[in-house]
Design goal:
The complex is a heterodimer. By secondary structure, chain A is mainly α. Chain A has 2 domains: 8-37 and 351-577, MetI-like fold (Orthogonal Bundle), CATH 1.10.3720.10; 61-320, MetI-like fold (Orthogonal Bundle). Helices cover 72% and strands 0% of the residues of chain A. Chain A has 25 helices and no strands. In chain A, helix 3 crosses helix 7, helix 5 (112-123) runs parallel beside helix 10 (223-232) and helix 7 packs antiparallel against helix 25. Chain B is α+β, with helices and mostly antiparallel strands. Helices cover 23% and strands 34% of the residues of chain B. Chain B contains 8 helices and 20 strands. The chains are: A mainly alpha, B alpha+beta. The interface between A and B is medium-sized, with 23 and 39 residues.
Chain lengths: 577, 358
């Protein structure tokens, strides 16, 4: 036996164990809880009762059908905008296209539930301003548009997916070698035929990959189904799981049922993941990636420019300006009222004045705690993972890489349910359940995938001799990491820290699942106030949340002297979906 | 012995299977000795060096540094605990630090750290040795390639190691800088008296720097000796061709010890049995062009090309179906395409017992 097949270092084994517990743990617990009855920690035999009950329920098939329809309708909305936008931004001479891309990278951070709230203010049959306007103008009997429907839900979710989809798809577009097109032109094939016979088949794997990736996300998305679907009684898998652990009426949480539903979601996600990796492999087979940096000559839009700009502006209107504008407007009025000259005297800052309550003060403090812990934890683990994966010859680095990336594919609602379960199991030993710490942990786990991918990319660019020079200079591996490698990847480190902080700041799904009495954060405060019908205070709080986020982005962009459309931002956009 | 390597073996797993980079190497360096590992890329010289540094772990064999076993299968001393300094091919200066900070880091955070008040004088001393004292506070990225290489050298010697390892340190420099750095390296290592193991594929570096040269190929040492020995008495055609240039002529040994070749009978003293196929070799600088007359040890050929090199002129001469290269001080008057007579002194021939390396 050769000596090079040597023992793994304790450090590597420690990181692997940490990942197994943090990433594998919640998933293993979903399986475990699905096989048990009663409360966590209670006596229960292993049983299939939860599955039997689930599959027998007539409600189950309806949920499944709703989930599928919701996912497909959302993606229909997404792709109606996504494909033309990607084409316009990456292949044409559309004016301001760089600015539009920057905007996409920023609006991706506006949480879906805030967009949903904005759209409800516009399109709800009772309070929706658009509906009331249409009724007034056309003298209608009832509201013509209803956001509280499958269509409304999918509309909001689909729009929210567009930025993430854009960053995935445009990467494939940019990587395409223009020589492939030019070869077609010089063979005498026209532009339109080239687009049909070369571009479309070549980008098809990327299109499919984006579609399947977003489908995976749609199957587990909770924000639109939670804000719109719950009051409308349109249930999908994620909202059913949420209700299982947070019964709306009196009742005990049913982790068994949540586990069984969670397994259904996991299986659906797994099936889609298989399709996704097939699509990726097909994409690689075409091998259209080249190292050459030049961009294809943009297609001239000419007289179509006006129409294209109108399309883009209409998209941004729906994507951000209408719902967010509505939110800002509502934050300044005492009750929901249509913008008009008559309304101007009513404008007030009273909603902002009423924002600070003992409850929201605690939410703010808790949010600060989450932001202090989650990004630091995610980035610290990501540094260790990236170092092992890119810098050592460990035979465990493959599995460590996969484990660090896995949270990307695991629905966040399930991670939260799994964490809640383990915290309940261990509540006697560790006071984790109901603490803000558990929310920070959940964020760290989910956004680890993004942080480790960013740091992998940065660390692989550090020449191995820079590290070896440290070792022969007498620096221990840890000292080398601290004094040589970490300073060299500092920009990526700060960038991923910042993005994990932003993502944690706006995260609401896991915070809601883990919400008990005292661990509310700003995002859950908004949600709770909304359920209580405090429309204008919600608007004020939501506007503040977005305003603070935009201010942070501006400050960080200036401080890091990086365009927000860096690779980090593109990866962050995927994590945000 | 300051460095002793015995029976060193190291293989790597690649996509195409296992490749044995080092297939049994023995080395011994006296204190203060400068030993050069010379060979083409992939010959295992860098792997040998990295094993001595502790950046690779040996599969088999034993390595001692300054009397202490650092790698022998059971024991493995990591690089930071070996008393070594190393200069890398890419310089590997740390771009986030200044010149002085680069040199100071081993003293502040390494295993061989020194008392705080000693750091500044030690750094200044090392920088003075490489003549960079004026640039101490500059960011290292603002320096030229040659200056970065000096920083790397200062960083390697600042801990006053017993052993200095250098991996193709001059290969990224341009030719003129390489010449002056070579002289400086020699001066510096002699002044410090540090035992040096030096890896290069450049024969001029090897011959001019080394107290001893090891020519390597395919993971093995073909020949060890002083630069003069290796140059004057190469053991085979590979070493002969790698250390300098050589003309090769196939031949068969005659009963009287002379050799029959396409150039005619060569009256060198081959010690092989009659009938043996041999290869004769002669260095281009041993050949002279005869303006006229001389007959002994001469051949007639046709001048195919001439290249003026300054001190010498390189001639390509076709004779007996072969192309011979000569580096002559006095160039013949013949122009290309005209006949030329070359003098091949009989005692300058080397006799090898197999065909020349491709």
């Amino acid at each position: 036996m050769l000596r090079s097949a040597r023992r793994e270092s304790p450090f590597t084994i420690g990181v692997l164990a940490l990942l197994l517990v943090a990433v594998g743990g919640p998933i293993a617990l979903i399986v475990w809880m699905s096989l048990r009855r009663g409360l966590p920690g209670g006596a229960s035999p292993l049983t299939l009762d939860n599955y039997v009950a689930l599959f027998r329920s007539p409600f189950f098939l309806e949920t499944l059908a709703n989930t599928a329809v919701f996912a497909m309708l959302s993606l229909l909305v997404t792709f109606v905008f996504l494909v033309p936008l990607t084409f316009l931004f990456s292949r044409t001479d559309l004016p301001f296209r760089t600015g539009f891309v920057v905007m996409l990278s920023i609006v991706v951070l506006i949480p879906t539930f805030l967009r949903a709230i904005g759209w409800i203010m516009l399109l709800s049959p009772e309070i929706g301003l658009v509906n009331r306007g249409l009724i007034a103008v056309f003298g209608l009997e009832s509201a013509p548009l209803n956001i509280y429907s499958m269509g409304g839900m999918a509309f909001v979710q689909g729009l929210a997916f567009v930025p993430a989809g854009y960053f995935m798809l445009s990467a494939a577009y940019r990587a395409m070698d223009p020589a492939l097109e030019e070869a077609a032109y010089t063979s005498g094939i026209g532009k339109l035929t080239t687009f049909r016979t070369v571009d479309v088949p070549l980008t098809f794997p990327a299109l499919l990959g984006t579609f399947v990736y977003l489908a995976m996300t749609a199957v587990s998305a909770f924000e639109a189904p939670g804000i719109i679907g719950l009051p409308a009684r349109i249930f999908v898998l994620s909202s059913v799981i949420f209700l299982d652990v947070h019964p709306q009426s009196v009742g005990l949480p049913d982790y068994g049922a949540a586990g069984a539903n969670g397994m259904v979601m996991l299986v659906a996600g797994l099936a889609l993941a298989v399709v996704y990796f097939r699509a990726l492999r097909a994409g690689r087979r075409f091998a259209v990636l080249t190292g050459r940096g030049y961009r294809p000559r943009p297609l001239r839009l000419g007289r179509w420019t006006g129409l294209a700009l109108a399309f883009v502006l209409a998209f941004f209107l729906m994507e951000v300006f209408l719902p967010l504008g509505m939110l800002v407007w509502a934050s300044l009025t005492p009750y929901l009222i249509a913008p008009s000259a008559d309304a101007l005297p009513l404008l007030t800052l009273a909603n902002y004045g009423r924002m600070l309550t003992p409850q929201s003060a605690r939410g703010l403090a808790n949010t600060v705690v989450v932001l202090a812990i989650a990004p630091l934890l995610a980035v610290a683990i990501a540094v260790a993972v990236a170092w092992i994966v890119t810098r050592t010859a460990s035979r465990l680095r493959g599995i460590i890489d996969v484990l660090a990336f896995a949270p990307h594919a695991v629905p966040s609602v399930l991670v939260a349910v799994g964490l809640a379960y383990v915290a309940l199991l261990a509540r006697g030993a560790i006071p984790l359940y109901g603490s803000v710490l558990i929310i920070a942990l959940a964020d760290a786990i989910i956004y680890l995938a993004f942080a480790s991918r960013t740091l992998n990319a940065a660390m692989i660019q550090v020449h191995h001799e820079l590290e070896e020079a440290g070792r022969v200079g007498g620096l221990s591996p840890l000292a080398t990491l601290r004094h040589v490698i970490v300073p060299l990847v500092r920009p990526a480190l700060l960038n991923s820290w910042f993005w994990v902080a932003l993502l944690s700041y706006r995260e609401v799904t896991m915070a809601l699942v883990l919400l008990t009495q005292f661990n509310n954060v700003i995002a859950t405060d908004i949600w709770t106030l909304w359920r209580e019908g405090e429309v204008n205070r919600v608007a004020a709080l939501g506007t503040s949340l977005v305003a603070v986020m935009l201010a942070l982005i501006v400050v960080a962009t200036l401080a890091l002297r990086r365009s927000p459309v860096s690779r980090t931002a593109a990866a962050g956009a995927e994590a945000a979906a | 012995m300051t460095i002793r390597v015995s029976g060193l073996r190291k293989a790597f797993a690649t996509a195409g299977g296992r490749i044995e980079a080092v297939a049994g190497i023995d080395l011994a360096l006296h204190p203060g000795e400068f030993l050069v590992l010379l060979g083409p890329s992939g010959c295992g010289k860098t792997t040998t060096l990295r094993c001595v540094a502790g950046l690779e772990r040996a599969d088999e064999g034993r390595i001692e540094v300054d009397g202490a076993v650092v790698d022998d299968g059971d024991r493995f001393v990591p690089p930071e605990r070996r008393d070594i300094g190393m200069v890398f091919q890419s310089y590997a200066v740390w771009p986030h630090l200044t010149v002085a900070e680069n040199v100071a880091l081993p003293l502040t955070h390494g295993q061989r750290r020194v008392a705080h008040r000693e750091i500044a004088p030690r750094v200044a001393e090392a920088l003075a040795l490489v003549r960079l004292d004026a640039l101490a506070s500059r960011p290292v990225t603002e320096l030229s390639g040659g200056q970065q290489q000096r920083v790397a050298l200062a960083r390697a010697i600042v801990t006053r190691p017993k052993v200095l390892l250098m991996d193709e340190p001059l290969s990224n420099l341009d030719a003129r800088l390489r010449d002056s750095m070579r002289t400086e390296l020699r001066r510096l290592t002699q002044a410090l008296g540090v035992t040096t193991l030096y890896v290069t594929h450049d024969q001029i570096e090897a011959l001019s720097l080394g107290d001893r040269v090891c020519v390597m190929r395919a993971g093995r040492i073909l020949q060890q000796g002083t630069p003069l020995e290796v140059y004057e008495a190469p053991v085979d055609t590979f070493v002969a061709a790698f250390v300098g240039d050589m003309n090769f002529v196939p031949g068969t040994v005659r009963a009287d010890g002379a050799v029959d070749t396409p150039l005619g009978r060569v009256a060198c003293a081959a010690r092989a049995a009659p009938g043996t196929a041999v290869t004769l070799g002669m260095r281009p600088e041993h050949i002279t062009a005869e303006p006229d007359g001389a007959v002994a040890d001469s051949i007639d050929g046709v001048l195919r090309a001439r290249t003026f090199l300054g001190e010498t002129t390189a001639l390509q001469v076709e004779a007996g179906g072969l192309t011979l290269v000569a580096k002559v001080r006095r160039a013949p008057t013949s122009s290309v395409g005209q006949p030329v007579r070359l003098h091949l002194p009989r005692d300058a021939w080397r006799v090898f017992d197999r065909a020349p390396a491709a």
